[in-house]
Amino acid sequence: MVNITYVGDTLIARKVTGDKNVPAGEISFQADLSPPKPSQLPFTSSSDKNTMTKEPLPNIVLSDEASQKWNTNELPRFSGLGQVAEKGFVNHQWMEGQLIFISEDYFSFAWLPLNHQILFGRPSHELTVQMMMDQQKRKTASAFDDDNEVCMIPPGVDDDIDTLNDHVMKCFDATKHLVEECTLQDDSSSCIFDDADVCCFE
Questions:
Q1: Distance between CA 140 and CA 7 in Å, rounded?
Q2: Which listed residue, 23, 30, 82, 103, has the most CB atoms within 10 A of its CB?
Q3: Residues in a beta bridge with 107
Q4: Which own/partner contact pairs does 95-102 have at CB distance under 8 Å and 24+ positions apart?
Q5: Is the Cβ–Cβ distance between 171 and 198 less than 8 Å?
Q6: CB contact at 8 A, 192 and 178
């Protein structure tokens, strides 16, 4: 599972659940969604020196069968970089890739040198929580620390994406810990709201 954020015109997919190669918290891939800009490709002739343009990737033309399935004839795509690594996030590096938009709910990313492509869809809230909890169970070290994880000053809007991502994961850890420690009351209210200093999700 990846979390999609944007920095300017760059789409960034950061892993929420990781694997043996690229762990959670690391960027899985990123793509440049910016419109064509001057001075990014060599000009085609001497008279074009002042009108250099960035050529967009051509759309993928679908077959009739695929067009019916996805309700479109063409799929837009954008240049990007995909991260790969050996086991244990060793020798991690970036390689050429492409982000392909399929619909409002689906997109894919292709690691071109590996001829490897992953289709992404929007998960349900239940699946999102389950995947995050499964990820936490796989961690060998405890992700919860009473002094450092619960009572904290939240980051501001000007903080970098790594700080914001770390804060969200700490909130998730705190919520998970409190839910496991608390017993639901008769009115189905949880004790996770009893302490205003605790950083947790509703």
A1: 32
A2: 82
A3: 101, 120
A4: 97/29, 97/31, 98/31, 98/57, 99/11, 99/29, 99/31, 99/33, 100/60, 100/75, 100/76, 101/75, 101/76, 101/77, 102/70, 102/75
A5: no
A6: yes
Whole-structure pTM value:
0.62
pLDDT, residue 12, reads: 96
CA distance 68 to 33: 26
Number of neighbouring beta carbons within 10 Å of residue 94: 14
Residue 52: exposure state from Cβ atoms within 10 A (0-12, 13-18, ≥19)? middle
* CB-CB contact of 102 with 94 (8 Å): no
* The pLDDT value given to residue 182: 66
User: Does 170 score more than 50 pLDDT?
Assistant: yes
- Cα separation, 29 vs 16, in Å, equals 13
